[in-house]
Design goal:
Layout (H helix, E strand, L loop, with lengths): L1 E2 L2 E2 H17 L8 H18 L5 H15 L6 H8 L6 H19 L1 H13 L3 H15 L6 H19 L13 H18 L7 H11 L8 H26 L8 H14 L4 H17 L2 H6 L7 H15 L4 H6 L1 H22 L2 H14 L5 H14 L7 H18 L4 H14 L10 H7 L5 H29 L4
Antiparallel strand pairs: 1-2
Helix pairs in contact: 1-2, 2-3, 2-17, 2-20, 3-4, 3-17, 5-15, 5-17, 6-7, 6-12, 7-8, 7-9, 7-11, 8-9, 8-22, 9-11, 9-21, 9-22, 10-17, 10-20, 11-23, 13-15, 18-20, 19-20, 19-21, 20-21, 21-23
Length: 488
């Protein structure tokens, strides 16, 4: 039931949880009253997000308001409102917001579709080849599409559906297993992997960078290039495995697809030669990747280093000046402005939970419980990461999960003796890879699941299998790769 803009039942639950922590649960020893009260607001906010009490941006506005009025971060009213709005000054938040605006050009110019059909025209002779074409298409556009939902659900999924339909594979006709079932699973399970490969591939990744920096006193500040290089090898291995693993578990009935290449070529023919807008988008993407990877600084010295967020603003400026995007396009990109608002609120609350000592207190609780098992840091970290990962069965939002748990679990791992950068990269990868588990794990999942090609049973079975594969690759291949890179 909904009254006004609020869902009553989940809304009441979030209020009861907030008031219960604030007034009923005693403040633990070693925790300040303000820290505990901020935790109450924080947990209530997360519960409201999970319960979808209101749109996440509206919940964020309420959270900012409550922090400002309760004074949990500052006794001064003027200081409290400055604290409540402090998240908006975080450059990483604007990096994601601006990158989402830039990615609008993929849809507007048709470049995203062209990339997808191009790779299918190359690899589409076999069904498994179409799977790899979808995977490569995801990988190519991932660095500049911070919305994994827009990428996997809005760009790649329509291409996947058109290919399946061209082979007479549809849920309505009971012919999903021809090819659509297989392609839908590949379409989905590539999405968490590409999300884990770049800071700019999904919205919560910059939050992870911020939490790691805060936990280490800014001793570890993961750059765009560091993240991309670290995730390169494990990411490529996972991408190589997905079409094969899905093929082994749920092989398609149609295995040879010579017509797929012709279909893709016909679509490319319909699109014609690359438009002016597409050419500008390609140039902007190349510019962003070169600057984000720090190539000028590597070639000419540190004087040519550029800020990652400034690069994003440069890319958007070029698109505006060239007319590829209009200011109306930017204003209409609601998801970007929405992300800036809710991200700012969550980052602000997470930052002050750390400043007030709550994260350190909770991490010591987690650490002591694992330490009592008597294992070395290696096994202890496996337990820690596995717990963090599979708790996602209870979350419908990666953002809510990361905001609620990442900082404490990372701090606990540090207390257990894990190398800081190794632990950060492993948990960062897990934060995206956990999207694979359920049909509600992230925004992409209900879109692809909702198309009807895959049953819930098959979705959960494949999700669990891929979770084991992806975690193993990130932990083993990634761990060895990071050792070679000197990260631990």
């Amino acid at each position: 039931m909904k009254v006004g803009g609020v869902k009553i039942v989940p809304g009441m639950i979030s209020i009861v949880v907030t008031l219960g922590i604030w007034f009923v649960v005693p403040v633990p020893e070693g925790v300040s009253a303000n820290a505990w009260h901020l935790l109450a607001l924080f947990v209530g906010t997360v519960v409201a997000i999970i319960g979808k009490v209101m749109p996440i941006g509206a919940i964020a506005i309420l959270a900012i308001t409550l922090v400002a009025f309760t004074g949990v971060t500052n006794n001064s009213p003027s200081g409290a409102i400055k604290d409540a709005l402090s998240g908006f000054s975080n450059s990483l938040i604007w990096l994601i917001g601006i990158a989402i605006m830039i990615s609008r050009g993929l849809a507007k110019t048709g470049l995203g579709n062209r990339i997808g059909y191009y790779f299918i025209s190359l690899f589409g002779k076999k069904t498994i080849g179409i799977g790899y074409a979808l995977a490569i298409s995801e990988l190519v556009i991932a660095p500049v599409t911070p919305s994994n939902t827009a990428r996997g659900g809005g760009i790649i999924h329509p291409i996947m559906k058109s290919i399946a339909t061209s082979f007479g594979s549809s849920p309505e006709e009971g012919s999903s297993r021809k090819i659509g079932h297989y392609l839908a699973l590949v379409n989905y399970h590539i999405n968490p992997i590409t999300s884990a490969m770049f800071i700019t591939a999904t919205a919560p990744n910059p939050l992870i960078v911020k939490l790691i920096s805060d936990a280490t006193g800014a001793n570890i500040s993961i750059t765009w290039g560091t993240w991309a290089l670290a995730a390169l090898l494990p990411g490529l291995v996972c991408i190589a495995l997905v079409p094969l693993v899905v093929y082994a578990i749920y092989p398609p009935e149609v295995k040879s697809t010579p017509d797929a290449r012709a279909f893709a070529k016909s679509k490319l023919s319909e699109m014609g030669v690359m438009s002016y807008g597409e050419k500008v988008m390609v140039a902007v993407f190349a510019l962003l990747l070169i600057l984000w990877a720090g190539v000028p600084a590597m070639l000419f010295g540190s004087a040519f280093a550029v800020n990652t967020t400034a690069v994003a603003f440069l890319g958007l400026s070029v698109l505006l000046v060239t007319g590829v995007l209009s200011w109306d396009d930017v204003l209409k990109e609601k998801s970007a402005w929405d992300t800036v608002v809710w991200f700012s609120a969550l980052v602000m609350m997470a930052t002050f939970l750390n400043k007030l000592g709550l994260v350190h207190w909770f991490s010591t609780v987690v650490e002591s419980n694992i330490e009592h098992l008597g294992f070395g840091w290696e096994i202890s970290v496996l337990i820690l990461v596995a717990t963090y990962f599979y708790v996602h069965y209870f979350f419908a939002s990666t953002t809510a999960h990361i905001t609620a748990m990442f900082a404490a679990f990372y701090a606990a791992g540090l207390l257990l003796g894990a190398p800081p950068l190794y632990l950060g990269l492993l948990l960062a990868g897990a934060s995206s890879l956990m999207m694979s588990l359920t049909h509600y794990a992230t925004g992409t999942s209900p879109i692809i699941f909702g198309s009807g090609y895959v049953s819930m049973e098959d979705w959960w079975i494949m999700g669990f299998i891929m979770s084991l594969v992806n975690l193993s690759v990130w932990g083993i291949v990634g761990g060895l790769w990071w050792k070679v890179l000197g990260y631990w």
